[in-house]
Amino acid sequence: MKKKMSLADYNAMPVRKAVTHNAVPAMFTMLMVLVYNLADTLFIGLTHDAYQVAAISLATPLFMMYSACSNIFGMGGTSVIARAMGQQKGDYAKKVCSFCMWTATAVGIIFAILFFVFAKPILTVLGASRDTLSLANSYLTIVAFAGPLAMISGTFSKILTAEGQPKKAMMGSMIGNILNIILDPIMILGFHWNIAGAAIATLISNMVAAGYYLLYFVRGNSSLSIKVRDYTLKGKVCSGVLAIGIPAGLGSMVMGVSVMFINNLMAGYGDMALAGSGVATKITMITGMLCIGVGQGVQPLLGFSIGEKNQKRFKETFRFSLIFAFIVGLIMTGICYLFLEQIVGVFLTDVNAYQYAFGFGKILLTTSSLFGIFYVLQNSIQAMGMGFAALIVNISRQGLIYIPLLYVFNHILGVNGLIWAQPVADVLALLLAAVFVFISYRKLFCKVDMVSAEACI
């Protein structure tokens, strides 16, 4: 029988092998998430109805809130569990896992109720027009029921990496997303259910993905636990997860909120500008999602090194991860730029919407090569367990820095200013993250009574 891999096994590998073995499945997971996000827009685009594209651009950020909340428990749980594994605290790791499972499910149910009941008022506030409101509402009221399922799959697609099972973590997400890609053309174009068909496909795919992860635990394949008897808020289980999880979740949540802000402002320039903005943003997601995967893949490796107090291993992993992530970001940005016309053409046929998307895409791609560096820095702070620093960094790029810039640049440059706000925010957030990594690293490793000054370099 093949030996089950653990984080300790990865820690014994050469750094390059450990990083690639853990990061590549995480990248593939995020690639599947990306394809899942693009599939709805792609097949809705094949209806040749730009209003439906605009409607799904309005509703998608709300569904992203499930992903944001699952990051609270997925990323927070991963950080705590990885450090616990490094300290040989298996029973504590089980309690953390059970806490993440049941609390995430409860939060998903609450959000599902809110979205189902208040869909129309929320969409109206976000800038839905008379032409897009009913379309966006039909999508949101259906995907609301996927909430608890999306929370479960989003949480465990990350937590399983903390026990050294990146391929298992990848598999559930992959199954759900491939199913969504298969169902989208059937329900949107085959059954002519249009945007409602996209929502039904999303609901079914999340149901299957959540079922995969639950079956993994029920079969006893995990060293962790989702049993109710292991659930507890005590022993810093709750506070430990939330200290890192809330900043991580807020980062994703702020990303969704920022899309709502730009959608609201972009709606002032017309539905075609809104459709173009939505497509341009999804194009940069091609690079962004893969780079997020790199960061999430290396976080448990860095966290395990922290738990072992292995400074040398941490530094080697961190340095190689930065190089690896930059190369990924650079290659993907180059591909997107070279094939920008073709990619935009797949989603939009309306001439005005196409021109907006093409111009916006060129602007957004100016800094997308830096995504990998930013996400490695971000996940390094989370791995070190630095809650306040993680909070500031996670909400900076799409929130503290980006949202004010939206209004400033909109006033100065108009519609293009709304797009230029993102590249400027990317650079400023990267610099901020680098400063916090330096401060966190020195706080963790460079105490006078622990190491020499030379060891901190």
From TrEMBL:
Principal cellular location given in the protein's record: membrane
Keyword check for Cell inner membrane: no
Localization of this protein: Cell membrane
InterPro entries named in the record: MATE_fam, MATE_MepA-like, MATE_MepA_subfamily, MdtK-like
Record carries keyword Transport: yes
Membrane topology recorded in Swiss-Prot or TrEMBL: Multi-pass membrane protein
Domain of life (superkingdom): Bacteria
PANTHER family: MULTIDRUG EXPORT PROTEIN MEPA (PTHR43823:SF3), SPORULATION PROTEIN YKVU (PTHR43823)
Protein name, per record: Multidrug export protein MepA
Species annotation: Anaerovorax odorimutans
Lineage: Bacteria, Bacillati, Bacillota, Clostridia, Peptostreptococcales
